[in-house]
Amino acid sequence: MRRVIRKHLRDFVAIVALAAIATGVGDYVLANQRLRFPWEGAPFRIKAEFATAQAVTPGQGQTVRVSGVRVGDITKVALKDGRAVVTMGLDPQYKGLVRTDASALLRPKTGLKDMFIELDPGTGAAPPAHAGWTVPVENTAPDVNPDEILSVLDDDTRDYLKLLIGGAGQGLAGRSDDLRDLFRRFEPTHRDLERVNAKVAQRHRNLRRLVHSLDQLNAELAGKDDELAALVDSSSKVFSTFASEQQNLGRAVGDLPGTLQQTTDTLGKVERFARVLRPAADDLRPPVKALDRANARVKPLAEEATPIVREQIRPFVRDVRPLVRSLGAPAQNLAASTPDLTSTFTVLNHFLNLAAYNEGGRQGPTVAGRDEGYLFWLAWLQHNGAALFSSSDANGPFRPVTLGGTCTVLKELTGDNPPLDLLYQPALLNKQVCRGANG
Predict the structure, then answer these.
(1) Is 24 left (phi over 0), alpha (psi -120 to 50) or beta?
(2) Of 83, 106, 368, 426, which shows the fewest CB atoms inside 10 Å?
């Protein structure tokens, strides 16, 4: 076998290539013919009732589309109670697409009636459709043939229509670009017309609701004759009161522009204040959010401090109130003298700064190399003086000095030196100490 294949290798390769190509072509054809392979999931089948299902032929590639996208195929058509029931097989991935408020339209793809179903899956407010569910006939519309439209026209209308179509064909011959530009320019108008039509449709619904509400109101008012008469009488009295207050109303209306202007200014200021307040409010959000945790942590302290405040601080405050009231006059006097005290302490501060001023700072290696202030040298003198007079007795650290002499010598010394006179005057005047000197 190998020898034969090796001998006819070129032919064998050609046969294998042709078989592979045939297999690929066959798969492509089967796939485009919508053949379902065994391993594919079963289609989701739903039905739709139509007044007529002309040109609908299952198995001829007729599809089901949503917004122009294929979602399934037409698999069967049957007659039930005089209506055509078309079965649609949707692909498994579109199983939950269709809702119970769905609608279906039969449309031709070409002029040869190659039909497909344009399916509107419905809104999300409706429940999903189950397998085998049928779109009712009131939610479907069949294809309309041109002869059905022409059959309702009389002979003259048909002739005019033929002339109109013929003239339009002659006028538009070779002007497709101009017609396309015309339609493009009408696009904004079409959008505006769409909005107008939507508003008109909404107004129609509102008008229908209004008529229904008025009908209910009239039905209710029909049995309220006495209440309506009382209402009319009360309204008459109210309008009479308004008429008597015409002057006041006129004055109020005259004051209204100024009030509105003031309100406008106030609202403008409030708006500016709100713009300024917003960053502060944003910054305050974290502290406000943390208040609960802070209160929880402060609660034990508050519970512990409550008896202290009630039993100790409050009695103390009550006892101190008379003293606080009596401090009013001294506080006023102190407030009056505070400016003078401020200037006095300022001068004293300058004096102390001058006495302690050190121009060179602590730059010298020794005391001799620094220009210290007076307070430094005063402390230095006190320290060295204590060291100098370290031999102290009961009278202090200073050495005692004794000056001696006779009364005559001392009397001569005091005559020329008044300080010595003050020092020795008690001894010179004592007769027992200096008899001869006093004689």
Answers:
(1) alpha
(2) 368
Mean pLDDT of 295-311: 89
Instruction: Return the amino acid letter for 395.
Output: N
HEC letters along 325-393: HHCHHHHHHHHHHHHHHHHHHHHHHHHHHHHCCCCCCCCCCCCCCCCCCHHHHHHHHHHHHHHHCCCCE
Domain encompassing residue 412: 407-438
CA atoms within 13 A of residue 158's CA, in its CB half-sphere: 10
Read off the pLDDT of residues 6-42 as tens digits, 9 standing for 90 and up: 777 788 788 889 999 988 888 777 666 665 655 667 8
Same domain, 432 and 413: yes
277, HSE (Cβ side, Cα atoms, 13 Å): 6
Residue 114 covered by a domain: yes
Say if CB 354 and CB 338 are below 8 A apart: no
Helix axis angle for 314-326 and 328-355, nearest 10°, is: 80
* C-beta neighbour count of 75 within 10 angstroms: 17
Q: Can you list the pairs that 29-37 forms with residues at least 24 positions away whose Cβ atoms lie under 8 Å?
A: 33/61, 34/61, 34/73
* Other residues' Cβ atoms within 10 Å of the Cβ of residue 71: 21
